[in-house]
Amino acid sequence: MSSADSLAAPSIVGSYEPVIVAGDPQGTPPDSPANRVDPNTVSSPFSGVVSINIRYDNQSFICSGTMITPRHVLTAAHCVDTTDLGNVIDITKPGNDVRVVLNGSNTVGDPLRSIITANKVTMNPNYNGFGICPPNSGLQGQCLNDDIAIIELPTDVPAGIKIYGLSNLAPATGSEFTMVGYGTSGDGIAGYNVGPSFRIKRKGANIFDVYDTDDEQGYSPDSPWEVWYYDFDGTVQGYNRDAWCEFAGVCGNTLGNDIETHLGGGDSGGPSFMKDANGNYILVANNTFAATSVAGRQQLVAQPPASAETSGTLAAASFCTPTSSGSAIRCPSPARWP
Q1: CA 150 to CA 73: how far, in whole Å?
Q2: Domains in the chain: how many in total?
Q3: Is residue 6 part of a domain?
Q4: What residues have CB less than 8 Å from 164, skipping those under 6 apart?
Q5: CATH code at 77?
Q6: Which pTM value belongs to this model?
Q7: Residue 112: how many CB atoms within 10 A of its CB?
Q8: Is 61 contained in some domain?
Q9: Which domain holds residue 162?
């Protein structure tokens, strides 16, 4: 564990990356990336959302993640995949490491602001690389399932860093969820124009619109739901942008200019939260990718050009592997991943 702030300027992992984006700065009410910043305090409900520094081959990358035990972080598998082919980072190789950055405090030297180097990293065994379908499946296009990894720490995080429970049921379409991450930001008019940061996290919300089922079962309609999609609704030049309404007839209203959000580079691996019956945030998904509305879900992008109408973009959250019953979606305990 280190409390030193030795964090170089990050790059964004891979070619297809997510971040928390604000609404229209001239909308009602007006919005900006600064309005979405969550404070680095233990009183924040998101103190257990961490940034992750992945270093290999003289490169340094940023992702986001969620504390699910005092020693385990759930994130996206593609964040720790060094080849985009399902090869987990070798943290025993000199120069390679994965560091978890805590943000329960802004005081330098406070253990709640520690940087902890991981001692183990594992991927979901069904993850074959970003967008790669299961071997011999015959599936065409992008398979975006199973993009989940677990980072293990050598010591518990300090008391005060929140630990989140895992949902044991797949949420219904139409459910509202909250996203948190450390990635690139901007707004729905200008596009991405604020860089990622290991020390600044943002939050926003959206609604699950449609889903994909299990790619290992050929996307059979009877198989468990594994990937959820949303869109970034909003009004641009007097026109309501609602991508899933346009593409699939799944229509809905925006949550509001200062609430609805979209992902950007560096938000990969961050949480999609819902609340349980007691009002506690529980993890229902990790955030994985973004796509333009012009070309649909097959056309994945790192970020739209500044002139893009990003209120029409799509993105997805990858859920955990199904239980043996096939009726519920649950993240396996870290012990199940050798």
Answers
A1: 6
A2: 1
A3: no
A4: 48, 66, 67, 68, 271, 273, 281, 282, 283
A5: 2.40.10.120
A6: 0.78
A7: 20
A8: yes
A9: 11-332
Each residue's pLDDT, cut to its tens digit, for the chain (338 residues) gives 333 355 655 554 433 333 344 444 444 444 445 666 788 899 999 999 999 999 999 999 999 999 999 999 999 999 999 999 999 999 999 999 999 999 999 999 999 999 999 999 999 999 999 889 998 888 877 788 889 999 999 999 999 999 999 887 778 887 888 889 897 766 555 556 667 889 988 888 888 777 788 889 988 889 888 887 777 666 665 666 666 666 666 666 666 556 676 666 788 899 989 888 899 999 988 888 765 443 222 212 222 222 222 223 334 444 433 333 332 223 333 333 33
Joined tokens for residue 132: 């790669």
For the beta carbon of residue 51, count every other beta carbon within 10 angstroms.
28
Which residue carries 């992945």 as its tokens? 54
Instruction: Return the sign of the alpha-carbon dihedral for residues 306, 310, 311, 312.
Output: positive
The amino acid that residue 338 corresponds to is P
List of residues 6+ apart from 53 with CB closer than 8 A = 7, 10, 60, 61, 62, 98, 99, 101, 115, 198
What CA–CA distance (Å, rounded) separates 31 from 156? 37
Residue-by-residue DSSP string for 79-100: GGBSSSSS-B--TTSTT-EEEE
Whole-angstrom Cα distance, residue 263 to residue 265? 7
Residue the block writes with tokens 């019953």: 325
DSSP secondary structure of 169-180: SPPPTT-EEEEE
Q: Please say whether the beta carbons of 265 and 17 come within 8 A.
A: yes
